[in-house]
UniProtKB/TrEMBL annotation:
<keyword id="KW-0378">Hydrolase</keyword>
<dbReference type="Pfam" id="PF04616">
    <property type="entry name" value="Glyco_hydro_43"/>
</dbReference>
<protein>
    <submittedName>
        <fullName>GH43 family beta-xylosidase</fullName>
    </submittedName>
</protein>
<dbReference type="GO" id="GO:0005975">
    <property type="term" value="P:carbohydrate metabolic process"/>
</dbReference>
<feature type="signal peptide">
    <location>
        <begin position="1"/>
        <end position="19"/>
    </location>
</feature>
<keyword id="KW-0732">Signal</keyword>
<keyword id="KW-0326">Glycosidase</keyword>
<dbReference type="InterPro" id="IPR023296">
    <property type="entry name" value="Glyco_hydro_beta-prop_sf"/>
</dbReference>
<dbReference type="GO" id="GO:0004553">
    <property type="term" value="F:hydrolase activity, hydrolyzing O-glycosyl compounds"/>
</dbReference>
<comment type="similarity">
    <text>Belongs to the glycosyl hydrolase 43 family.</text>
</comment>
<dbReference type="InterPro" id="IPR006710">
    <property type="entry name" value="Glyco_hydro_43"/>
</dbReference>
Length: 453
């Protein structure tokens, strides 16, 4: 009898242990993924020293691969494409495939020079598209320049099913107009602001001046309409200013944007409608949707992970009025435009606009803007200046991909720790790296990015 009881007890214990193990396995399989950040970084000649990339873009394709591209190191002299079956493997030389798809001043890209910034890869209607920023190197184009700051938005395309081995060609430079009709013959006629190329000219008062910086272009589709959003400098009294010229305030969408950095210009995010059949190189109905108006958008205030203004020891680039790097999330009947603000140092952070999915996206007054940043430096985690993000999914979870630094100060070159020298320009610091983390959603339907890690 005792033996029988012991047998039953033993059997029950076996079932319990088996059930417990299954439960453990289920928990392990459904655990929130954590990534071995950085997800990709270059390796310098010093061996273990990791040298970064900025503006990371990750796209998950139907072939099961994650495709990754970013602004290359601190030289910005090529665009590489990488792919791997998991986000973590993007940083493994043994597992990730790597190829260079854009080399400036050569081959199909002879008309483009460095700086090559903020590349994005998309697969649209059976064609691969690459959206990126570069300097115009075509002497027949009015945008031709030898200045690295005269960057423009470009589009390249690849008709092959495999973007790693297929041929990439330059579709052209993105050109945009304020009016509803794209007339190629009138793009360089500065007499009509509705017809002139807004990506080429800055319009101040009655004069169009042929120097403008635009960058960070991204396409997205709402319903049947494709839109294109990008960052571009606008000016007091220019085409986007609905207020009084010369008052030191940029006014549009019922909001006033003061010149907090004292630069005389605002890096605003513009948006317009893509012309069908133009390979995303023609955009109409252009309007600004956001420009810096809060102190954290020009670096005067720096928030930490607790939502508080923090005075941690950091090196500051010069103050700049910057909204740039737009990225789009669509969820819960809303459209969220996540953008980068401030200088590319430890003050860099993410802001957010939101609008109903059926709202007028080109009316700035219809967008709701967060008064504080939604993703900031994490002093506790030792991660500084998170910005320029993209979004993907991993094992059913939503993932934000972004760049950040592990130092609050800036360095002018990479090397051993005793070789660091301070730099005032965040672009010269090679230590930005691509990072990833799972994010969640708030009860009001907005994204919750948590802490940078």
């Amino acid at each position: 009898m005792k033996k029988s009881i012991f047998g039953v007890v033993s059997a029950l214990l076996s079932v319990y242990m088996l059930t417990a193990c299954v439960s453990c396995n289920e928990e392990a399989e459904t655990a929130v993924p954590a990534f071995a950040n950085p997800i990709y970084s270059l390796v310098s000649g010093y061996g273990s020293t990791r040298v970064g990339e900025a503006d990371p873009w990750v796209y998950k394709h139907s072939d099961g691969y994650y495709y990754y591209t970013a602004s290359y190191g601190s030289s910005f002299d090529r665009i590489q494409l990488k792919r791997a079956k998991t986000i973590d493997l993007l940083d493994s030389g043994d597992s990730a495939e790597v190829t260079t798809i854009v080399t400036p001043k050569s081959g199909n890209f002879a008309k483009v020079a460095s700086y090559l910034w903020a590349p994005e890869i998309h697969y649209i209607d059976g064609t691969w598209y690459l959206f990126f920023t570069g300097v115009c190197y075509d002497s027949t184009d009015a945008a031709y320049s030898t200045s690295v700051w005269a960057v423009k938005n470009y589009v390249a395309k690849c008709s092959s099913s495999d973007p790693m081995t297929g041929e990439w060609t330059l579709a052209g430079r993105v050109r945009a107009v304020k009016g509803s009709t794209f007339d190629a013959s009138a793009l360089e006629d500065s007499s009509d602001v509705n017809k002139m190329d807004l990506t080429l000219y800055r319009y101040a008062g009655d004069t169009a001046q042929a120097w403008i910086m635009n960058l960070d272009g991204t396409p997205f589709k709402v319903g049947d309409q494709w839109y294109y959003a990008w960052a571009e400098y606008v000016y007091d009294g220019g085409w986007a200013d609905e207020g009084e010229s010369g008052d030191g305030i940029l006014t549009f969408g019922g909001r006033e944007h003061i010149d907090g950095a004292g630069t005389g210009a605002w890096s605003a995010i513009l948006m317009g409608k893509v012309v069908d059949g133009s390979d995303f190189t023609q955009v109409t109905d252009v309007r600004p949707v956001t420009a810096p108006e809060y102190a954290w958008e020009w670096g005067e205030e720096v928030y930490d992970e607790n939502g508080e203004i923090n005075s941690f020891d950091m090196a500051h680039s010069a103050l700049v009025n910057v909204n740039e790097g737009p990225a789009i999330l669509q969820r819960n009947g809303k459209i969220f435009l996540i953008y980068s603000a401030s200088a590319c140092d430890a003050s860099y952070c993410l802001g957010m606009l939101s609008i109903d999915a059926d709202g007028d996206l080109l009316d700035a007054s219809k967008w709701t803007k967060s008064e504080t940043p939604v993703f900031t430096s994490s002093v506790g985690n030792g991660i500084y200046g998170p910005g320029h993000c993209s979004f993907t999914t991993y094992k059913g979870y939503d993932v934000i991909v972004y760049h950040a630094r592990t130092w609050p100060k800036l360095y002018s070159y990479y090397g051993r720790t005793n070789n660091f020298t301070t730099a005032s320009d965040g672009l010269s610091d090679p230590y930005r790296t691509g990072r990833a983390k799972v994010f969640t959603w708030n009860k009001d339907g907005s994204p919750n990015f948590g802490e940078a890690e």
